[in-house]
Amino acid sequence: MLKKDLVCIVCPNGCQVEALVEETPELKVIEVKGCTCDKGVEWAEQEIINPMRTIASSIVVEQGDFKLVSVKTDTSIPLGKIFDVMDAIKKKRVKAPVTIGDKLIEDPAGVPCNIIATRNIYAAKI
Ligand code: SF4
Question: In angstroms, rounded to a whole number, what is the distance separating the alpha carbons of residues 11 and 2?
């Protein structure tokens, strides 16, 4: 039996969480202590079994008034897929204009999420 100490990141309370985990071939959460609400218990189980993250980065823009557009995933993705998704973002090029919320990549590296723009980029004035 493993004991895992975590800090819940779901809300600013930051509860100290202790989880007891069994390593049968797969990880199995036996007990979660220290959460003051059910959302924390759900988060702790997810964090131990299949941790998820959202990521933010930027994509190169051609013919824009700015060379990069900031982007983020529109949902959280498995922690183990971050490098694959970052690689897809790094290889991508878009042409101005770009509008906040534009889907710039769908299912990057086969991961079910979208990479969306988080700022406007206007076409460069020539
Ligand atoms: S356990 Fe509940 S109250 Fe505590 S940090 Fe997590 S979400 Fe917030």
Answer: 25
Distance 16 CA to ligand 1 centre (A): 9
End-to-end CA gap in the chain: 66
Per-residue pLDDT of 49-95, as tens digits, reads: 999 999 999 999 999 999 999 999 999 999 999 999 999 999 999 99
Taking the domains of the chain in order of start, what are their residue ranges?
2-50, 56-117
Contact residues of ligand 1, CB 6 A cut-off: 8, 10-11, 13-15, 35-37, 39-40
pTM of the complete model: 0.84
Phi-psi region of 91 (alpha: psi -120 to 50; beta: other; left: phi over 0): alpha
Q: Could you identify the atom of ligand 1 that is nearest to the CA of residue 37?
A: 2
Backbone dihedral angles phi then psi of residue 116, each to the nearest 5 degrees: -115, 150
Q: Which CATH superfamily is domain 56-117 in?
A: CPE0013-like (3.10.530.10)
